[in-house]
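Troubleshooting log. The previous run stalled partway through. Resubmitting the same two chains, unchanged.
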Amino acid sequence: QMQLVESGGGVVQPGRSLRLSCAASGFTFDDYALHWVRQAPGKGLEWVAIVSYDGANKYYADSVKGRFTISRDNSNNTVSLQMDSLRLDDTALYYCTRTAAYSLHGMDVWGHGTTVTVSS
Amino acid sequence: AIQMTQSPSSLSASVGDRVTITCRASQDIRKDLGWYQQKPGQAPKLLIYTASTLESGVPSRFSGSGSRTDFTLTIDSLQPEDFATYYCLQDYNYPHTFGQGTQVEI
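Second attempt completed without errors. Output:
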């Protein structure tokens, strides 16, 4: 079945880096744009970033622009989120999700998330 | 960035009730709006996209309407499994933005 599985979360000090990965299976990976969405403990959802089906286009939330980099590897069906200069308010559960490349509407498959804790 | 204002932030309802949640965009987003349901400890689930298109497999008691700046999610005849938090998301432009959520409680 269609699946997204995140990994790479952990505890990290402020100012340090962390790289999240998301492995996709069960669908044609390069038919989809991939997103990261996060949720701080007890808070709502926050969209973080998107990478287009071919990796050519990337967009970010203002809160992470210049610190986070999204990328994808279509040969290995993975999407990554490189997170640099981490701050306390980056602490969250990070979800990987997708939208069809032809429409870019409706995030229809989600992973279970990976937890990032930024703490000194 | 476009701001999405969702209301109410929470509501209490009973099984069988009709529930309405609204979302207002700070600018015209055409019909580029989705609705998501999230239950505790679970990932969000897509209910509706492009304002009124029901995702495959979602019960027909869920419906969406609206365009430009004002949108509504309606749940007809609330079921026990519908008690959850609901979010709107504008995917008209970047950065995409979520509403703050509506918790539907018993």
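Takeaways: Chain A has a mean pLDDT of 97. Chain A touches chain B at residues 35, 37, 44-47, 50, 59-62, 95, 97, 99, 104-108, 110-113 (CB under 8 Å).
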